[in-house]
Amino acid sequence: MTSRERLIATLNHAQPDRVCVDMGATAVTGISASALNKLRRAVLGDESYRVHVHEPYQMLGEVDDALRDALGVDVADVPAPRTMFGFANRDWKPFTMFDGTEVLVSEEFRTRKNENGDLLIFPQGDTSVPPSGRMPRGGFYFDSIIRQPPIDEDKLDPADNGEEFQPLSDAEVQYFATHAKVRAETGNYGITMGLPGTALGDIALVPGPFMKHPRGIRDVEEWYISTAARKDYVHAVFQRQTEIAVANIARLAKAVGDRVQVVFVCGTDFGTQRAPFLSPQSYRELYSPYYKRINAAIHEHTNWKTFKHSCGSIFELIPLMIEDGFDILNPVQCSAVNMAPRDLKREFGRDIVFWGGGVDTQKTLPFGSPEEVYREVRERIEIFNDGGGFVFNTIHNIQANTPIENLQAMFRAIRDSGT
């Protein structure tokens, strides 16, 4: 099979010739630029190569085609038009990370250090406005800076939290169409694409790190409180957001077509390590009406499969996500309570594709031995890839301090898993 054929078979729950592999095709299945730098040098030996940081919020490195082919990675992405900080990746310039890794970043990746030595980054590269992200001194990625003024209940307007959701311009639609065409014609990879404006209350987006002056409820804690205490407000935000998203989907479907196989719909997390954030009833009331509309619009106009990201213990919510029309679940956090691989595959493997879960990034991959990594990867592939419906990826992004020996053991186990 070609990589694209392998992904399509996997998405249709058919047994592929070998496990389908992703590394870097979404912002939640990627690899830290630091770890990628070590891996690429070990595999391809090019000491002069500088990794491109394509997602600066998490400082994720761009997996290039040469490395993708060398490792047997099957999936690539349509690059997002803008980063999480609201600027485009262009006019690359050198940058040295705290750990000494030399990378390339966008010219609009503009930073300053504060008195503590923390690195501050600015929305849309505009240093005349307050910074929207902070990387602690010695850190590996950014956190959002909360810039919400005190809330006046009498003046809260849901439109303020919907400011970022707008109809796509013709130029934006053309951007996706052009880049999807280029990607489809460059190799035989399976292709993912992020849909703009479909993430409902994704807490990474709520603070508006890409906005110069975000309005509305932008504090993380305050937003979570609002999902219980200001439900009418949240419904109003989701209603407007969904109306615009559905219209945008119809236009993107016509422009992009079947060049793309998978679309990233939403990255909102619903689980903690031990339990869901909310009850099935609350999920059904607050999120399901909008997820169903978005997924229905996608499936009406396209053959795209829809990708839902949620960390944590969400076993009891998975049936609702399937009911809402999601085709793919990521990251499959097997270390969380009630998320045992065999139970997940047995209960839901016929109805949803598992994308992730291939190895634990909290303990095994960063802190285990190469032998432990190898065993866990082989076991997860044996469980999840039985009968298809599994795209191998780690449980969320590969972190910066992951030992190169463990990354090599992971790919050796993937190769040795065979057919």
List the helices and strands and how they pair.
Layout lengths: L2 H9 L8 E2 L11 H12 L6 E5 L4 E2 L3 H7 L3 E4 L14 E4 L5 E4 L5 E3 L5 E3 L11 E3 L7 E2 L13 H4 L8 H16 L4 E5 L25 H10 L1 H26 L5 E5 L13 H7 L1 H14 L3 E5 L8 H6 L4 E3 L10 H8 L4 E3 L8 H4 L2 H15 L5 E3 L11 H13 L3
Parallel strand pairs: 1-16, 2-6, 4-11, 11-12, 12-13, 13-14, 14-15, 15-16
Antiparallel strand pairs: 2-3, 5-6, 7-8, 8-9, 9-10
Brief descriptors of the model:
419 residues, alpha/beta, 8-stranded parallel β-sheet, 4-stranded mixed β-sheet, 14 helices, 36% helix
Short structural description:
The protein is of the alpha/beta class.
Q: Widest sheet: strand order?
A: 1-16-15-14-13-12-11-4
What percentage of amino acids are in beta strands? Answer: 5-15%
Estimate the helix proportion, in percent: 25-40%
How many whole angstroms does the radius of gyration measure? 21 Å
Number of strands: 16
Shape: globular
How does the helix and strand content classify structurally? alpha/beta
SSE pattern, N- to C-terminal = HEHEEHEEEEEEEHHEHHEHHEHEHEHHEH
Number of helices: 14
Distance between the termini: 11 Å
The major pleated sheet works out as: 8 strands, parallel
Low-confidence stretches: none
Query: Can you give the mean pLDDT?
Result: 97
